[in-house]
Amino acid sequence: MGFSVSHEPVSGYQTYNGPPAGPVGPAGPPQPERRVRNEGTGRKVALAICTVADIAAGFLGLWILLFLLEANQGNGFVEFVHDMADWLGGWAQDIFTMDTEGLRVILNYGLPAVIYLGLGHGIAARLNRA
Q1: Is the distance from CB of 37 to CB of 115 less than 8 angstroms?
Q2: Could you count the other beta carbons within 10 Å of the beta carbon of residue 56?
Q3: How far, in Å, CA of 72 to CA of 126, rounded?
Q4: How far apart are CA 115 and CA 122, in angstroms?
Q5: Packing angle between helix 76-89 and helix 39-68, nearest 10 degrees?
Q6: CA distances for 90 relative to 39, 111, 119, 127, angstroms
Q7: Residues 95, 101, 102, 105: what is their CA dihedral angle, to the nearest 10 degrees?
Q8: What is the greatest pairwise CA distance in the chain?
């Protein structure tokens, strides 16, 4: 019982003649020309947006921490962080008016921090997918 193998091509199929002719570089044989979007620019913009959102949320979170730890409000650094947090979260001030001052600060500065992070990283993710 033996099998015989025919070396003739099956009708309707082309035979393989090896790789395409032409110069072969480190990336392999030349590829057909296609339009490529500059992906580096989109990624850089997305990274910049993430960075700005992270810095904004960082200032807001740092002010919450300094407030809860009762940092010296007369210190220059603490004043700077408070001024930045007021500027970044000014639109959300007094949304929550609790009697407990610590909880009020957490909510009024925490909400903008969460929104900045959500929007910044959401926009960046959308840019990276495009």
Answers
A1: no
A2: 21
A3: 41
A4: 10
A5: 120
A6: 36, 11, 17, 28
A7: 30
A8: 99
Q: Which residue has the tokens 């921490």?
A: 65
| Structure token pair of residue 119 | 């929007």
Q: How far apart are CA 58 and CA 89, in angstroms?
A: 12
If you average pLDDT over residues 19-48, what whole number do you get? 68
Please state, in angstroms and rounded to a whole number, the distance separating the CA atoms of residues 72 and 106: 18
**Helices (H), strands (E): how many in the chain?**
3, 0
Give the tens place of pLDDT for each residue, 36-67: 555 678 889 999 999 999 999 999 999 999 99
Within 8 A by CB and 6+ apart from 124, the residues are 46, 47, 49, 50, 53
* Residue 17, both tokens: 């003649």
Place of tokens 């807001």: 60
- The secondary structure of residue 11, as a DSSP letter, is T
pLDDT at 97: 84
Q: Tell me which of 94 and 10 has the higher pLDDT.
A: 94
Distance CA 62, CA 85 (A): 9
